[in-house]
Target: arsenate reductase (glutathione/glutaredoxin)
Amino acid sequence: IENDLEPGGTSGSGCKSQNKSEAERESWSRKEKEERRKKKEMAGRSISYITGSQLLSLRRQPTIAIVDVRDDERTHDGHISGSLHYASDGFTDNISKLIHEVKGKDTLVFHCALSQVRGPSCARKLVNYLENSKEDVGIKNIMVLERGFNGWEASGRPVCRCKNVPCKESECAS
Model:
């Protein structure tokens, strides 16, 4: 029986396979490293909370967008001036539209009436969308307004009652 091992103990037919396997492992390793890097980056995009006082002082910064995810209440109860409206019941279908609208913003602050269900849920949907996206859209911070719109208004913070969608902050009295 003839031994088909080449010097070094590998078979002629297995050598290419072994090299291919090593290349596949290296490629897989690079993919794993890239996934870990993205997950670390996403950890920076985890959801945090912001108080009404903090938002009041930061809300006019050009890198912040406020996203109101209430449904019909926005029309009746007013809203935080300059906020965008993406109703929670259709939020998932409109995420790409939201991302386009907030281009250049790195912080998004979500709220609903109380920020207990819809606001955090929509924020989580955005995080999940960004985790699955291959594109870096520049959003680094995703926050939820503590106590929601109701808490904002109850604390005497400015509320706009215009009917514009999106709200034209310059036309609001807040």
Notes: The radius of gyration is 25 Å.
